[in-house]
Amino acid sequence: MRALLLLTATSIIVYSCGDKKESPENTSSYVVKGDTIALQKNSNIIPKLVLQTIKEEDYNPNLVTVGTVKAIPNSYAEITSPFAGRILKSYIKLGQKVMPGSPLFSVSSADYFAAQKEYRDAQQELRQSELNLKRQQDLLKHGVGIQREAEEAATDFQIKKTALANASAALKIFKNTDKMSPNTPLVVVSPIKGEVITNNIVMGQYLKEDAPPIALVAELSKVWIAGQIKEKDLRFLQNLNGVEVNVSAYPDKKIMGKIYHINEIVNEETRSVEVLIECENSDRILKPGMFVNLKFSETSERAIFVPTKAILQFNDRNYVLVQTAKNEYVKRYVDTGITENNTTQIINGLKPGETIITDGAFYLLDTK
Question: Which positions fall inside the CusB-like beta-barrel domain (predicted)?
Fold first, then answer.
């Protein structure tokens, strides 16, 4: 009896061991060869995988950033007095339209009076030098002159001519020196067409030579907007369809601009490039110093987008699992673009018509 029981127990143990060896649950679910993963046909992972065939679609890329409104430098003038002196009169008020040469204010300046005198003296000396040169040339022409004296007269004439040009340089910027009356106050004029946007002129105020500007004139019918674009996004600027400017104070107002200039230097701290956008501003909505939102819109293009969760990482590189045969997949490294609405753009690495795992790939993450 004891021998019968022992034989029965031994048979059960042997049967159990044989059953465990043949159990499907202990059969490997997949085989890995290099970057290829082959799933066994009885793998319980297969029904957990979601596949998708890649297609191209129309895509209109957009890039959104912020910008600051700026006056165009050639249409902006900071006005101060070129000479130290006291303000005698103001000819302007805020918002006034001015033209090039329009008087802004007058200044009584001892330095300006001295410059006037120096200019007139230089004029007189040039006239005398010119007469002497003509006389020496005439004498030489009739055979009674001396060559050396004629040459000295010519040299002196050139020196006096240069001195007059230097004396008139500063005066000509502000006034026609040919019509300048002796000891008259300096009238500072506008160098550009525009509008008075700052007026800090105070009657009787004494201005030093290094005084800050006391008036600003600007033409704001056009303005620049300075935006900062990250270097990785510079490709957005290649085929732009336009730049849309949005002002928070006027949410329903649509303003369009165009790129005027892209800076050639990348800011090393922010890794960005300044882009200047020129905008029409006839209604004066855009004011210098204002913050605005910029939307760069590219022309429509064909692009590949995949669910973001389909993209895996290995050693800081992105890859997807591409189907090469039934239940067989290969690791394919890809370059990605922008991510929006839970999808990511694939720039390089995939072609339309290929099939990838879009969900469930994490079951295979222990592969190498």
Answer: 222-299
